[in-house]
Amino acid sequence: MASFNRASMPENFYDITSDMLLVQPEPQYLYAQMFLGALSLSLEVPSELGLPGRTVGGAGAQYSPEDRDRLMLANPMFRDVIAANVNFNAQAGQTVRINRPVYENTTYTEASRRIPSGTTITTTPVTVGSQQTNLTLFRYGGPYDNVNSRPAPYAIEAFDANMGVHKAASIHGTHLKRDFHKFIEAVQVSLLDLAATAVYPEGMSGVNDATHVGAFPLTYRQIVDVESQMDTANLPTFSDGFRALVLTPVQVSQLRKDPEYQRSAKEFPQFNILFPGYVGSVNKFHIFRSTTLTVSNNSSTVPIHYGHAIAPGSLLAGMGRRPRVASNTNDNYGETVLVMWLADLAFGLANNALVYSVRSSA
Length: 362
Prior knowledge:
By secondary structure, the chain is α+β, with helices and mostly antiparallel strands. The longest helix has 28 residues, at 168-195. It is built from eight helices and 17 strands.
């Protein structure tokens, strides 16, 4: 017997979309917040998008901000990772050069420096050394079109924007800010990965040495080795006498299973209260967990995890024009608004000797 239902007469039914938003878990973008905090900048998204007099806001409820669902992990000491921030008053492509001294290690024995009475002191001078780090300003934009491999705008139809459950400007603003923050995070992680000195677990000298999962987990002894190398290199600490160790969740799990770490690790209650992602402290490291670090398969398809041991003053940051949401003038008489974020930024390492790549296998 035929029945009257949605399947028999779909024309009589319609679906309702709630204006409630579900959680979409997001990482904190630790390094992006560090970069933005050092430059005191953010991407401000207006409530309406488009050219003046031809903007689109849209009907409906506000969309949630991009940081609503983020896992908050960081300590504000990470702002001290930025050695210098530069505000360019120039066009993209300009380079600022920043000097740092180079000290020559000569002979320091008592006898070598003794100048006996009556000795003629030489007039031939020696020179002092110096190095330079370059910071070049470039223009960046997003989001990114993966099909055509290029930055590209979002398009908002003015007619459809007035009929949505959520405001079109609010939806696109959330996506623009998330894309902006994730871009900065990815650039910072890549800089630290490529320039840092790699430190492996005992018995591992390269990423392809791990032929199976569990071959070379992160251990307390590896952390001690990293600390020893950083101390030998006379690397500075943060104001509390610690450096930062940023690890992947898998590395944190491996470390917590190490009996030597369990005996040596400490926790600071004030960190636990303010920063739930704080893992603990051991020796001269405060340990933090980040879900945006590099995990890459080696030749045996074993995931290799790239943590970072960081001393203050490691990175450089620069800005020209402030980040902004830009609208294209080709907007089909105001009917199709094209928007993207643009920013004049500079990324760089102050000194790659201040960062170590703490690598281990899954």
